[in-house]
Write a structure and sequence with these properties.
By secondary structure, the chain is an alpha/beta fold. It has helices spanning 33-45, 54-80, 87-106, 124-132, 150-164, 183-198, 216-220, 225-240, 265-271, 292-308, 324-338, 350-362, and strands at 17-27, 112-120, 136-143, 172-175, 206-212, 247-252, 279-283, 313-317. The protein has a four-stranded parallel β-sheet with strand order 2-1-3-4, sandwiched between helices. A four-stranded parallel β-sheet has the order 6-5-7-8, with helices on both faces. Strand 3, helix 5 and strand 4 form a beta-alpha-beta unit. The longest helix is centred in the first third of the chain and has 27 residues, at 54-80. The chain is globular.
Length: 367
Amino acid sequence: MSQFLGHLRFSHDQPLRDGVLLTNLGTPDAPERRNLRRYLKQFLWDPRVVELPRPLWWLILNLVILNLRPRRSAELYRKVWTEQGSPLMVHTRRLAEEVAAQLDERLPRPPLVEVAMRYGQPSIASALRRMHSAQLNRLMVLPMYPQYSGSTTGSTFDAVSRELRRWRWVPELRFVNGYHDNELYIEALAGKIRGAWETTDGPGQMLLMSFHGIPKRYLLEGDPYHCQCHATARLLAGKLGLPADRWKVVFQSRFGREPWLQPYCDETLAALPGQGVRSVDVVCPGFAVDCLETLEEIAIQNRELFERSGGESFRYIPCLNDDPANRDLVLNLIEQHTGGWRGFGADDDPAVLDERRDRALALGAER
């Protein structure tokens, strides 16, 4: 048996396919302890996520964290779980379905559109295998992380390349590193915020832009994430016309004891009322869709913290999710990154396929 994945019934007149793979971080299958243990084990064992020596980290992870954290994490997931499942999965799938529907209308032979999760299911490997069965020729991978980090986008590339290096025919690949300064992305965020302001009594005293944190040493070793978060925030504040004293960048979801990117979201929210800021709006530009970190950590935990500290009005502004603006952003990214691919989305000429098969048969091919 070959060590490489091929097509047992390969035919020279079979049309080749284009593919778009939309990826996100992942989610457990259910908000139960056993599901969280399996999910966290895969997530936290990734060396891109935790950069500690493997023997030491194996002991900490398996003897301490996986015996304590799954139960607590399951309780948190239950707070945001819906009848359809995990919010992250629900919104990502809906977004992909809307993107695929638009491509179906716009292109004679639309690309295959698949959703995959870096951790959990559907896995990147399983999604790529489904695309392989259609004889994939060209592949665009779009990780749904606007700002690049080695712990997210880099890890996604690891998983994609780990699967593709097993294929006999590796497809032409375009991998999107991020879109932190994309004009449609900034406008979509601004539109979401303006919409929230228009449906209530206007903006709060302060707009907090909360991004997921990473260890500070990643920044010091050259990871561009911190810089790209601040670039997004500056562009967004400029689009909204906010003066410098009306917005802040903060970082959430720190883990472990080493210093992470600062200022920390929770500490900032606890301090604001004492500084005279009693009403805040919080948006999470680094998350393409809502998930545990936005719906529970920000909209529940941090709201309670702000109010306990003397805050009076806390408004969480949801992510772009499957809004039309996010769909149009993804379509724009697909168009931008597949530009120059001759024939992308075009039908194959049957006569060309027949001619290709006839030449192959004349040279001794079976099909």
